[in-house]
Amino acid sequence: MFFKQNKFKLLFIFVAILLLVLIFAIFFSFNIFHSFSPNYYQLISSQKRIIESQTAFEQGILDNLVLSQNKQHKNQKNITLKISQINFQKYIVGDNFLSARSVHSADIDNDGDADILGAARYIHEIAWWENQGSNKFVKHIIDNNFRGAFSVHSTDLNNDGYEDIIGASLYGGIVAWWKNNQNSTFGTRQIIDNQFAGAIYTYSFDIDKDGYIDILAAAESANQIAWWRNKGNGVFGERIVVGSQFTGARSVNVADVDGDGDADILGAARFIDEIAWWENKDGKGNIFQKHTIDNNFDGPRSVHATDIDDDGDTDILGAARYGHKIALWENNGNQYFTKIIIDDAFRGATNVFSADIDRDGKQDIIAAAVFGDQVAWWRNEGNRQFTKLIIDNDFDAATFVYPADINKDGYLDILSAAVFDNQIALWISTPRYESSGVFISNIIEKPKNNFAYLNWIGAVPQETSMRFQIRSGNNQEELNRVDWQGPSQNTNYYTAPGMKINPIHNTDSLIQYKVIFETNNSLVSPKLDVVFISYDI
């Protein structure tokens, strides 16, 4: 009996191991097949073909097309039609939110969508709005006695997988946090510092790289930029002053400005018209060296770090309330900054942010203007060229902006807070695509084998199409001279995956393919993830 039981156990273990090996083999093959490295060859023994996958789309030519992030493979990109314009539809998230000063977004209840947070100065309130879907929200008050609530931010402070809340109290000089109870409620206020006079802005980052998110803040009356070390479980150390005598400190941000792998700190000071950054000298946030970027930026209210020109270093954005300016300081890679005025008539520029609004791979600019009642964005056209586009020009005393994909459609929406309208508002973005575009691949060296099939992975929604053509030659001059071909003399285009490649190309050593993208509905675009060219053995 004992032998039989163990025999069955051994048989079960053997079968289980065999299944695991089989699953691993399938998974491994799938990932190799979809490894997406350019010009990758693989022998498929059952099909007796060589498969070449093509995803190095950035090496090709794109006309009216853009490269977007591939959701399945984060290090790869896909191709879609270029967005010609974006329409925004306004929704009021929170009303009677007196002197709304700050807005933020995060998945507070861990249900997979982005919720919204706000701070209201005159009702001393920190609140969040639960995203119910279909642009409907339910308000939850976190604290309604946080005197002069001016800033709200969220991050996971105790590493429990839930977003906690950070806030700044202007009247109380308080930086505080509220623990997420993991049931859509929050614990009582926990004080980090209650002697930070004029606390006005909060931010978070792991400054000392110990795995715990630390807290940063700016204090307008204390004239300081500071941070507090998170010791774990929401316990914070004493204030570490980064910048003192930074008169009218109004905003703080973090980035690796000098590219040495640690967190440097940026700030804006309204009374001395200054944008500055502090170099993290020891990599742990104990020793900082100040560098002034600009000390003639009239009344700065906001500073934001980004890579506008996509050259791999940190550029700086700023908003000047009294100068009515949105400015960019472009980093040459050695922390020498060139000032570029994006807009010099954005009345009461108060807050600035960056995000890729049109999904073309470049960081665009978003900002709020308190005197002009405007929320706007500037499309990054490349080469220091920007096109201003108004989102709303009647949002009374617009004071803050934040981008987030609220409706989970893959496109960033815009949130803003308005002091005099006493509102938190949301603008849902709806992109409109160009009607057609063309992609021409890089030149591909083909093996001596004959062609087999052209395959591809992507999406072709109704009212859209993707058509392929191929040309070939034995040198670049010959390649450029010949016509594009379809699968046969009578068929000009490859219109579906798996079509046999025209044998006319078999004798040539170089090939290119062309893809024509088209849509009859400006709300949708075809999408190309990867191209597979197979050869017979």
Which labels suit this protein?
537 residues; mainly beta; seven-stranded antiparallel sheet; elongated
Notes on the protein architecture:
This protein has 537 residues and is mostly beta strands. Helix content is 7%, strand content 51%. The chain contains two helices and 40 strands. The strands form nine sheets. Strands 1, 2, 4, 5, 36, 38 and 40 form a seven-stranded antiparallel beta sheet that branches. Strand 24 and strand 25 (325-331) form a beta hairpin. The radius of gyration is 28 Å and the shape is elongated.
What's this model, at a glance?
The protein has 537 residues and is mainly β.
SSE arrangement:
Layout: H1 2-33, E1 40-44, E2 49-54, E3 61-63, E4 65-69, E5 77-81, E6 83-94, E7 100-106, E8 115-120, E9 125-133, E10 136-143, E11 149-155, E12 164-169, E13 174-178, E14 190-193, E15 199-205, E16 214-219, E17 224-232, E18 235-243, E19 249-255, E20 264-269, E21 274-280, E22 288-294, E23 300-306, E24 315-320, E25 325-331, E26 337-343, E27 349-355, E28 364-369, E29 374-382, E30 385-392, E31 398-404, E32 413-418, E33 423-433, E34 436-440, E35 444-445, E36 451-459, E37 464-473, H2 476-481, E38 499-500, E39 510-519, E40 527-536
Antiparallel strand pairs: 1-2, 2-40, 3-34, 4-5, 5-40, 6-33, 7-8, 8-9, 9-10, 11-12, 12-13, 13-14, 15-16, 16-17, 17-18, 19-20, 20-21, 21-22, 23-24, 24-25, 25-26, 27-28, 28-29, 29-30, 31-32, 32-33, 34-39, 35-39, 36-38, 36-40, 37-39
